[in-house]
Amino acid sequence: MATNTHSDYQLAPVQFSRLTKRGIMLGLSLPQLVVLGVAILTVVASLYTAGGMGLAWTSPLWAGAALLAVIPAGGRKAIEWVPILARWVSRTYLGQLVYRRRIIKPRPAGTLALPGDAAPLREWEDPETGAAMIHDPHAQTLTAILGVSHPAFVLLDPGEQQRRVSGWGRVLAAACRSGRIARIQVSERTLPDSGTGLAEWWRTHGTNDRSWAATTYAELIERAGPAGERHATTISLALDMKAAARQVRTSGGGMRGSAAVLRQEMTTLTTALRAAELTSTGWLTPGEVAVILRSAYDPAVAPALERHGTLGRDLATAGPVAVTETWERLRSDSAHHAVLWISEWPRSQVFPGFLAPLVLSNGILRTLALHYTPVRADQAARDLRKKKTELISDAAQRRKIGQVEDAGSSAELDDVLQQEADLTAGHGVLRVSGLVSVSASTVDELDAAVAAVEQAAIQASCETRRLVGQQAVAFTVAALPLCRSV
Hints:
single chain; 486 residues; alpha+beta; 2 domains; 15 helices; 45% helix
């Protein structure tokens, strides 16, 4: 008699590669080597010119340089904070921490009303699909945004979960093969619910006979709708216009040629998503993108924009009115924001769905953004060979000088060998970065929400770090589905 075993439906665990912390030599980064070299040269020069007295007189210089290289501060070495602090001081001096929209002076036609380094982004509406394509003239990318709906992953049985995970893997593998994709961004946002879904259900299925029960039910829907929250998922696809230059010229050149090449990638993505049983709600139009941008900077107005389908649908006015950046947070129209970086993914094997504590956190307005950067197979093979050679050379150098080999270096070499085996087996290589943008109406509420997100990340076996000195740039990368890099 045949029996079904539970192992037939078990999920396959996965393991992430560790964040490399290997330096140029003996685990030391370039800034550390520079300041240590300065310290050593100072010591040698002092001894040769003035002997022991010169060494004593120059001790503040070489001792300070040595301490900058070895003293940790905030997860970094002290010397690695120097460029961050220098850039922050220069931006403060130049007045780049404060943005106020010029209401009288109009923006150039076709540009998005965004602050900072996102100001040059331009809008292009595809005449064939009606999709909004965002052109970044500096990074030479063209981005389209797709809305996606899906069932609750945690409620599916293990066999169905494994099948959907395999389907999503094929979607990412297809992106690696073309060589024309600069970046893929998956954004999962929680938004204040306007209650239109409940109201629409009541209008369709309810019976408004003006009875006491019908009146009470309608009042409950009116109160409970705006108090809830909803989840929205988008997938952004960025075309590398430099890598696709030949195809762009073949398609007519310019923005029309780039849009034609991007449409090919859009068709490939939607086909792959359909095979993975993810339902696309269509490529977002300029009006829908404008609502996302406006809601990110001004969450309080999001329910009103959803209830009134014709308001806030202009990309030229979708940006914030005022933005003020501080060292560890950002203030925009109606909210305070903070961006966290997922600095460490789970080091042990985990099952798909491990991000559930972070995704299903209730009562917090946040955006989880996953950035996938495809790497061509030939480039990935070169990078892996170079990294493997450096790791083996570093291990040999440590053995030669008598330094004890640590488990972290051995684990990093194992990760490289596993990636090389996967690449040989035909799999693609992607670099994954995770950011979490948290929003709240007050500073105290923001600190409480950030603490809750950090705790949820710990439950998901992830480590998060609050970005400092670059909150404005990080916010545009985490909260806006524009496939930008930080």
